[in-house]
Specification:
This protein has 176 residues and is an alpha+beta fold. The chain has six helices and nine strands, in the order αααβββββββαββαα. The longest helix has 30 residues. The chain starts with a helix and ends with a helix.
């Protein structure tokens, strides 16, 4: 049974294929390949303030935001950043917001490749629908459809390069 059948009501306004086509990681795939990817997606719904994953958890895959919003946060003391938690306890449990991911955005893509511990936490800001694409799914694609997997890996590499460049620029700005 496809994701479209399972989640028909959620995706009526925005079919999964259209969402994938607009997601950088899948943007180079043909319509036929996008239909194949749809079979690998795992729908999940998170309620307001529900944790998708915590910093330090094993990374098993990435998520695409269908609807709603996700806050990406890191443990630490706030420095010119929006802070969540008790400011008096920042050293032992405060969280600094890194970014917010909205519909059509994605997060956790590093875990699709290397599966190490999560470098930040992801928390639903409101009721949020996600599509999971996990490392095991990519591994299966590498075995079954290597050319398609290569397109996805190339796009992931581009996204990671862009994010690394942005982080480097921010670090340079902070050290000036």
């Amino acid at each position: 049974m496809s994701v479209t059948t399972l989640w028909g009501n959620v995706f009526k306004k925005r079919p999964v294929i259209d969402l994938l086509r607009e997601t950088a990681i899948f943007s180079r795939l043909s319509s036929r390949e996008l239909s194949m990817i749809e079979e690998f997606l795992h729908p999940r719904t998170y309620q307001k303030d529900e944790v998708v994953f915590n910093e330090g958890d094993p990374g098993v895959g990435m998520y695409i935001v269908v609807g709603g919003r996700i806050r990406i946060v890191k443990k630490g003391t706030p420095k010119n950043q929006r802070f969540f938690g008790d400011p008096g306890k920042a050293a032992d449990g405060g969280r600094v917001e890194l970014t917010t991911i909205e519909g059509g955005g994605f997060f956790g893509e590093i875990s699709v490749i290397e599966g190490g511990p999560r470098t930040a936490s992801a928390i639903a800001i409101e009721k949020t629908d996600l599509l999971g694409f996990f490392k095991s799914d990519l591994d299966e694609l590498i075995d079954r459809r290597p050319a398609m997997a290569a397109k996805i890996l190339y796009q992931i590499a581009k996204v990671l390069g862009e994010r690394l460049r942005a982080a480097d620029e921010e670090l340079s700005r902070l050290t000036e």
